[in-house]
Write a sequence for this structure.
DNA sequence: TTGTACGCGTTATCAC
DNA sequence: GTGATAACGCGTACAA
């Protein structure tokens, strides 16, 4: 039974550790221990302390704790955009993985702008994040130095390269696309076109393009420069770029799309134009969102478990933080063959 | 020219205000002022201080600052999910609005679980967020008390009710759906079916349903219980529910979908089944994502500027924080009529 | 305009 | 096992 004078919502200045200590009749040190290392304190005291905490409604002050321990329990992440299927799913999963280990996510976005990304990182660092999760691995020189100078661990996500110096968690973009190309060549395709997200300050897009280029080269093939189209990521853009690709002469028999939105746009536009998919044109994408499989003509694509990327990236930083050296992880991908691709037409 | 002993990346214990003060030959108080209220210090000193800051690479410690000022420069947000088109866009915009005013976003997700939402909020509060952005306005009793007891401002987003006691930022879900119903009735529809996200612990879904119900009632119409289907939010679910709706006898002439994914699923399934849209069935949705307008049959829907919601919500909390009383804001919606809806068939 | 000195709430180091 | 006390790094009265 609490007597009236100790209501938890008392409008007094906020309750602190000392108040709890006073009520429980112990020292502040004991309260601290009872909370942080319960096993190091006698059971009787532990109970007294917990009771007192309940009574006064004490909530530990994270700032004070951080000031003292040099750790904030906070992980920062900077993503190019949040409203993109794969990133959103990754963040979702990241959040859960962090919460499970009692960390909290400080989120920022860079809008695909390296400068902005840098400044966001600085802001997060000032906020005292214990670790960072970034996207991609290409950084401006000054930026790179800044990061390595920091003592806080960071992870590059959505990329994987075996020889990378920093831990990264993601699929091997280039290899995934190469595998897709192998499949298409196997299907008899020889004339390719590609529509891709602009590779400027986007190393994932660049890696995908490189994967395509090298795989084709390996088969003695290539995408002529005029058959390569770059643009933003949207369905509308995919539609527009497909129209351009269809003006090529001779027409390509296979169209490789750098991401899911472009693929969806390309497919829908092909349907609108009456281009038969896959008879006249095979369309393949990258990344897998629900839409791609539900469209009138489901789209062949590279499936990457984006949530895996998020979850693993989160666990990786936390491992680094706790000293367990973590070397990053390759996230598997899978070529999902659907109705939008098939044997090359003989035209 | 810096002499060797003062490298910014020196592995000494982290640089602090005192180091800057020492280098600049001033007191710590002056450095603090020069940083936080530059106008209150002479120009010469300001320059000296800034130079020293650069030299030693000082970064203010947010924890110490927070401890002292009781403000963290952090806003917490708890969303049901992040990987959902509208939420993702809102978070995107929120993030920008906060960054513009030098705040940072602490993000958590509740997975539509009120208990989890509550615990996430507690965690954010312990982290010392200055304000909160939540979704919806229905809360469990204990939760509600907890919130009102806190001295920190919060905003309910994605909902708007003129008589709400807490500031909210969002569209009037019920009114939007009512307006959609009016349109459909005007088009001659009398037999309705609705597929909706489960209304359990989702007041937005509930409000939309209520809007439909009341509007129909106003026209002397109703959706019979067996014509109301609830499920999760996904395209696949929309497909499944449409199949169920099509088994009704007599068939509905208009199908109202509670969100965008359900609408897309319903439309695609209708196409698959050979149900003519809108001749045999008008399909309307809620919310607007790019897909809806790009499908073979573009979908009539309620368009809400989700990014507006995020932006305004962010600005609102910050206003509250700065004492400018803010009463929330109604975000406008718009009925976008596309090819998926039309006059009722006379069958 | 500038410097001194204290306090913010917690944890860690010592004694006991 | 427990208690006193000194940091942690910054902001800010207050005095100069």
């Amino acid at each position: 039974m609490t007597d009236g004078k100790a209501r938890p919502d008392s409008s007094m200045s906020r309750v602190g550790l000392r108040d709890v200590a006073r009520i429980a009749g112990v020292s502040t040190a004991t309260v601290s221990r009872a909370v942080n290392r319960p096993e190091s304190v006698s059971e009787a005291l532990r109970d007294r302390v917990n009771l007192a905490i309940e009574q006064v409604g004490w909530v530990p002050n994270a700032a004070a704790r951080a000031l003292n321990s040099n750790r904030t329990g906070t992980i920062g992440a900077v993503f190019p955009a949040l409203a993109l299927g794969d990133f959103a799913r990754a963040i979702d999963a990241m959040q859960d993985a962090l919460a499970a280990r009692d960390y909290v996510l400080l989120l920022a976005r860079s809008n695909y702008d390296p400068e902005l990304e840098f400044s966001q990182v600085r802001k997060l660092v000032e906020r005292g994040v214990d670790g960072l999760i970034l996207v991609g691995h290409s950084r401006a020189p000054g930026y790179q130095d800044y990061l390595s100078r920091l003592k806080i661990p960071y992870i590059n996500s959505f990329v994987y390269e075996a020889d990378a110096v920093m831990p990264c968690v993601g699929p091997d973009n280039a290899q995934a696309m190469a595998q897709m190309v192998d499949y298409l060549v196997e299907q008899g395709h020889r004339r390719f076109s590609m529509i891709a997200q602009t590779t400027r300050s986007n190393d994932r897009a660049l890696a995908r393009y490189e994967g395509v280029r090298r795989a084709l080269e390996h088969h003695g093939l290539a995408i002529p420069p005029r058959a390569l189209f770059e643009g933003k990521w949207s369905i509308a853009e995919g539609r527009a770029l497909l129209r351009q690709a269809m003006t090529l002469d001779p027409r390509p028999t296979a169209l490789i799309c750098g991401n899911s939105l472009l693929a969806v746009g390309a497919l829908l536009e092909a349907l609108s134009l009456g281009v038969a998919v896959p008879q006249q044109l095979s369309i393949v994408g990258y990344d897998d969102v629900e839409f791609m499989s539900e469209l009138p003509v489901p789209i062949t694509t590279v499936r990457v478990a984006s949530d895996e990327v998020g979850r693993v990236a989160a666990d990786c930083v936390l491992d680094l933080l706790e000293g367990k050296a973590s070397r990053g992880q390759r996230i598997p991908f899978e070529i999902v063959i659907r109705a939008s691709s098939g044997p090359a037409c003989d035209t």
